[in-house]
Amino acid sequence: MPLFYFDLIDGENITEDQAGTDLPDASAARRQATSHIIEAARDLLPNGGAERDISIRVRDQQQDQVLEVSISFKVHAAPGSEFPQ
Question: Is residue 59 part of a domain?
Fold first, then answer.
């Protein structure tokens, strides 16, 4: 089974996956990356801020990047509204 690594990129912060995960194929790696990005968004987005970019970078056994899944979060408050800018 191929080994895939899932690195979390949160703005300038990168947390590299050192262990990797054995998965049957690239389609399974894509599903895993999608699950990881949803989980990361759940954990990181409530922490405030009007903008945040989160990515999961997928590397193969040779450490080559093969996929990246990203989410961009932006809050735009209307001028003069009660919401902070």
Answer: yes
Nearest one of 6, 7, 17, 4 to 60, comparing CA atoms = 4
Confidence (pLDDT) at 50: 73
Indicate the pTM of the whole model. Answer: 0.84
Distance CA 28, CA 14 (A): 23
Q: Which pLDDT score, from 0 to 100, does residue 43 have?
A: 85
Question: 22 is in which domain, residue-wise?
Answer: 3-74
pLDDT of residue 75: 79
Position 84 in a domain: no
* b/e per residue 30-49 (b: at least 16 CB within 10 A): bebbeebbeebeeebeeeee
Count of structural domains, the chain:
1
